[in-house]
Amino acid sequence: MTVDPAVATAIPERFALTGKVAVVTGASSGLGVAYAVGLAQAGAKVVLGARRVDRLEETVGLVEAAGGEAIAVATDVTRVEDCDALVRAAMATFGRVDVLVNNAGSGGEYHPVTEDPPEHFRSIVDLNLNGSYWMVQACARVMGPGSSIINISSVMALTTAKMPAAAYSASKAAILGLTRDLAAQLGPRGIRVNAILPGVFPSEATAHYSESYKAKVVAARIPMGRIGDPADLAATAVFLASDAASYVTGVSLPVDGGVLVN
Description:
By secondary structure, the protein is an alpha/beta fold. The protein is built from eight helices and seven strands; from the N terminus they run αβαβαβαβαβαβααβ. It starts with a helix and ends in a 7-residue tail after the last strand.
């Protein structure tokens, strides 16, 4: 089989995000920063949303240091009006929205089922699930063909760490159903919807893990033999955002070093 040289040279270009505008929620820390910087490095202009505006400005600085362009907008994704305002800011500044990385979320607290306060369970579902849906609503209204929505789920949607984290696991499992339904709804408009399922990565949620505990987790659960690097997730998001994934939709993609193999 011979490869058309014109097609071969076009493949690297399909990974570029030049001219695209990406909205990233939860961009004030951790993996949200990695997504924002990675998308900017691939050529996208980025619109950053989070509740902590001072930390958002730090992310803007990192994006600009990487040669990108960004704006920051105070956003609580549990508030529909905030989601709409974030998209309006993107349209006012850059004139379009091509990519959404639905990263805002929380792991919540650990409560046994018999002791989990109702307000805790509701707050985690509201942030992780409802907030993701409100952001899709706002972005889908302005997105055109070729756009990409990337929902952030978790391996905890499909397995358990044997910790009492029902609210987190339930909300992240719901993201998978949401992703499939939205892929079917928005596919005819040329908008792709996929989910990333991160495994164990450095973040605010894992910052308290001791080195000995992380070593035990790696030995017990991660065949690749290491904790994930945020760049692993950023690269996956760039792929799903880009034209390289133009025929990929409705997919739940683990980025977990093999956690789900066990």
